[in-house]
Specification:
alpha/beta; 3-stranded parallel beta sheet; 3 helices; flat
Length: 78
């Protein structure tokens, strides 16, 4: 199994997600910066960490929506 965690500026718990996936599944987990234009090949799981406990004051969600690796741009891969 292969997994990737997408890393956004201001997101929370991205490294915790990586650790949880690796420990629970034994998967190789790649950390992918949100600005990358491609994802690693043969992924079984893609994780978008959250963590906006007090709202989106830093506009992390707005930045994520326009990111190169946003989910709307991945649909052509499948």
């Amino acid at each position: 199994m292969r997994a990737a965690v997408i890393v956004f500026p201001g997101s929370n718990c991205d490294r915790d997600c990586k650790t949880a996936i690796a420990r629970s599944t034994g998967a190789a987990v790649d950390m992918v910066w949100h600005g990358e234009t491609t994802l690693p090949d043969r992924l079984d799981l893609i994780v978008l960490p959250g963590g906006f406990a007090y709202g989106d004051y830093l506009r992390c969600g707005a930045m994520a929506s326009g990111s190169n690796t946003s989910a709307s741009r991945w649909t052509s891969r499948w």
